[in-house]
Here is the input.
Amino acid sequence: MANDRRPDDMVRITTPELADAFIEEQIKALKEQVGDKKVLLALSGGVDSSVVAALLIKAVGQQLVCVHVNHGLLRKGEPEQVISVFRDQMKANLVYVDASDRFLDKLAGVTDPETKRKIIGGEFIEVFAEEARKLDGIEFLAQGTIWPDILESEKGIKAHHNAGGLPEDMNFELVEPVKILFKDEVRVVGERLGLPANMVYRQPFPGPGLGVRCPGAITRDRLEAVRESDAILREEFAKNGLEGKVWQYFTVVPDFKSTGIKNGERSFEWVVIIRAVNTTDAMTATVENIPFELMQHLVDRITKEVKGVNRVLYDFTPKPSGTIEYE
Ligand code: XMP
Here is the structure.
């Protein structure tokens, strides 16, 4: 494919005009590469895969098959948004797989963080490969690889985070239309492709999802407390002008209970920890100064609305000494 590497003199895509020119160029290149063949894409709903999907829909329409795997560890409303944006609005050929039970059953009783990650990653590949085998005539695999991924894998910092993982007999040709772009450029392109702002400018979300925010062995009820408290936090940050300003924010529900009082009676329930941090490269991070009134409002809503929770804490720990996630 043309433009294998980012040209040294490439102008940073910061304006709608530059984004439009890139989109036009890529659509042409994609049409040439794919021809009348079929392309498969694992669509997570994250910025990179969403922009790749939107580009391919424009270039080859129904020849693109998007597979959205719900591993049961997504945030509230995420699978619904992927379906509404891609299937309903963009008329994409979208296969939605609700594999929640399969993932949660495999994760039952598993406490070690790295084992949890391995199970989630391995199961994801399996589910995706199973779906791929059901489809006929796929020749291409699209991926949301971006320029920093290529630089980091060249420097040996991380294994190419997208490529690989699929069984060896599935040797698709890769389609990577945003691989010469930096993240900020992908966002500008995404906006011009008509993707919703909350999808294009969303905060980073780890691949293992809420699984690493439910420390220790994941249980369905504690996972639900993570999901519901996260939804309240995101809603309140959006209402109070913190969405897009704070780099990453989420909730964690550790595996212990504390005593409290609810409706005049003793309760023995979980604790929600709120984390809100700012960083540029995620190597170090500082803690956001959340207004006290907002903090009080969050405590009030979370303890009243989230089942099984009677206490809310704020994590004041920068990175280092704490990492951003809890495991
Ligand atoms: P830590 O916790 O190491 O996180 O300070 C730094 C950034 O990386 C994200 N993170 C992950 N992303 N898979 C991912 O795709 C993972 O297993 C993972 N663990 C951490 C984290 O959300 C933060 O943005």
The chain has two domains: 16-200, 209-314. The CA atoms of residues 76 and 98 lie 14 Å apart. The chain has a mean pLDDT of 95. The chain has ten helices and ten strands.
